[in-house]
Amino acid sequence: MLLCGRVHTLTAQEEAEAVYLEGDHIVEVGPREDLQARFPGARRLVFEQITPGLHEAHAHPQLWGLQLESLDLEGLTEPQAVAQRVAEKARTLPPGTWIRGAGYLFQAYPSRELLDAAAPHHPVFLQSRDLHSAWVNHRALKQAGLGAHTPDPPGGRLLRDEVGEPTGYLLENAQTLVSAAMPPPGLAELERGLADLARRGYTAVHHMGWCHYSLAEQLAFSGRLPVRLWWALDRDHWRQVQPGWRGDRLELAAVKFFADGALGSRTAWMVAPYPDGSQGLPLDPPGLIEEEGRAALEAGFGLAVHAIGTQAVERVLEVFGRLSAKKSFRPLRLEHAQHVRDQALPRFRGLAAALSLQPMHLLGDAELVRFHLKGYEHEAFRLRDLWNTGLPVAFGSDAPVMKPLFELNLQAATHHPLNPGQNLAPAEVLWAHTRGAALAAGWPQHGLIRPGAPADLTLWEGGRPVGRVFAGRLEV
Length: 476
Prior knowledge:
It contains 15 helices and 22 strands. The protein has 476 residues and is α/β, with parallel strands linked by helices. The protein folds into 2 domains: 55-61 and 185-469, TIM Barrel (Alpha-Beta Barrel); 72-179, Roll (Diaminopimelate Epimerase, Chain A, domain 1), CATH 3.10.310.70. It is globular and about 80 Å long. The chain starts with a strand and ends with a strand.
């Protein structure tokens, strides 16, 4: 197969006019006329642009598959508007059916009364856009057996009224007290989410927890994986697993930790307090991350650590500084690094680490930064400063937190709504979705268009992905 167009190789050659594929590998890259003459019988296709295959470098594909069939609350910032959507949905479902949804962003925590009125005969479970908090109604609390007697779980909190009854708003791990009473997502949701990502032109997905690895193994062993899947295991599962590849499409590669929560839920762990005096919610303590992380590295895994707030980022950097001396063929991964103080920037340089960022979160979080972190806006989404550390940078969406669209990262990273001095160039955004993401995964052979590289490519028209070549197979 001969693909012709503007070929972004991401090698020293930079650009070419054509790429010739045989089977699942790239054979030759070069001028169009030369390759047409050398391979006259090849099937020839023309596209505006051809790039290495896009990576979605931070996603929860099972939850994305679940969200594709749940209430989409993206862009809603008022509890009344969300409750109206719930009421409309309730009218279409039999009584007792769970109503799920996600995507809202509120400036204050609501209580359950609006949802009680909207869906009195249905249990309701709605997650904030960042998935770090949930809003539920009385029926959901009752079905989960929660009341004034229920203690807060480790790493979570049930907000309560003046007499100790749950208000219906749950922070972090308190969400599991209700979700445990719901029908769990399974293999169908994982498969649906991965198939949707493949249709969007992605050839690789980096999975970031909240799904059991055995489901991915089922897809790998049955030949049903539509992408190459880099898998970070939940920290409760890794000791029962051998790291490494299952076939050529699934790698059980890392262990996921959570140093804190997220800005939208005010659980991101900060040095400076929020306006209400709180400083967020640390989840996995730094000592645990270091102890378990060291053991995981010794077992052959990499690490992926979620850190959003300034305090969380700095504590994880301290841990990474001590773990960097541990020889590993996989980089340590810092996921998000959304809020970084000036004094923390020098600590990034020289680490055996990669940075996994989601610029598109700026599109919704910019207003929250101005509201919750007034005076600290310069610490948020330091894309250029983090790029200049010299560490590999990978971009993703955190789907279902945001829709997994390359163009959203391109928009946010090249037109920073808080600080234009942090803008990146379009070519750097592409690099972070391809070569940078491959390096963050520990896949040095990927993210390039050169002879011998895997034939994983994304095809473009009008500045958007319109298809892909995956393992040598054309999909448009």
